[in-house]
């Protein structure tokens, strides 16, 4: 049985003035697949994610979401913004709203869904991430790890078909990283389609179905985690892993 491609990217290019941030990205993301994007800082990983849900205008190329068409052409990004959920490293919670109102805002306003129905869904998700008892707390009363888990719940309440995670543990203290990664791990185990940008390489080893390694706005290697971490194909990937003491020439 052929696996279903949910998101298809072809010849994606993005520039900032004279600087080419993305130089022709091709990638397929299958339904239920966890794709982890690795690479050095400044290689275009975050720009790539922001292009996938329309936060950055693209210069050239096509992004196709199955069942919706070519994004930005056949369907506007605003129409599928909830379908492609995204969580940033900076939480982006509204400080003047408590947890539940932060979560309810998108589904009730952007999707015109029933408040009672969304509240029930939010309660269930808050219980899953261990934060139901913080339902009426304000962001200033939460730790970084708690804020990030709330941001994930908020995105999930939009009922996305695919989730994008951009360095969601980068701003956290080390002891808070694990609690967020456990939420991502559970999502992966439950079949959520995910594209994850991270520097947590041990996490990438265990959660990824596919590793995408980027360098200077291009994809230079696509491998399984087993292949990438034990026998990377490119010298650049080898040197990248060596900087983390994860690869040494045999």
UniProtKB/TrEMBL annotation:
Keywords: ATP-binding, Nucleotide-binding, Transport. Residues 7-241 form the ABC transporter domain. One of its GO terms (molecular function) is ATP binding. Signal peptide: none annotated. InterPro entries: AAA+_ATPase, ABC_ATPase_HisP-typ, ABC_transporter-like_ATP-bd, ABC_transporter-like_CS, MetN_ABC_transporter-like, P-loop_NTPase. Belongs to the ABC transporter superfamily. This is Glutamate and aspartate transporter subunit.
């Amino acid at each position: 049985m052929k696996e279903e491609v949910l998101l298809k990217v072809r010849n994606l290019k993005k520039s900032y003035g004279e600087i080419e941030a993305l130089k022709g990205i091709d990638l397929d993301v299958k339904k239920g697949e966890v794709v982890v994007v690795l690479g050095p800082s400044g290689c275009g990983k975050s720009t790539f994610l922001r292009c996938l849900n329309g936060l950055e205008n693209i210069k050239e190329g096509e992004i196709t979401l199955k069942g919706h068409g070519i994004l930005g052409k056949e369907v506007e990004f605003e129409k599928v913004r909830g379908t492609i959920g995204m969580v940033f490293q900076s939480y982006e919670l509204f400080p003047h709203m408590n947890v539940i109102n932060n979560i309810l805002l998108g589904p009730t306003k952007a999707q015109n869904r029933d408040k009672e129905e969304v509240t029930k869904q939010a309660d269930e998700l808050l219980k899953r991430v261990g934060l139901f008892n913080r339902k009426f707390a304000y962001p200033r009363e939460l730790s970084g790890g708690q804020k990030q888990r709330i941001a994930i719940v908020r995105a999930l309440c939009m009922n996305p078909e695919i989730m994008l995670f951009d360095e969601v543990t980068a701003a956290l203290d080390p002891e808070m990283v694990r609690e967020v990664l456990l939420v991502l791990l559970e999502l992966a185990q439950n079949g959520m389609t995910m594209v994850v940008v991270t520097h947590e390489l041990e996490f990438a080893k265990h959660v990824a179905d596919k590793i995408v390694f980027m360098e200077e706005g291009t994809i230079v290697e696509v491998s399984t985690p087993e292949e990438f971490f034990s026998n990377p194909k490119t010298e650049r990937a080898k040197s990248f892993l060596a900087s983390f003491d994860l690869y040494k020439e045999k």
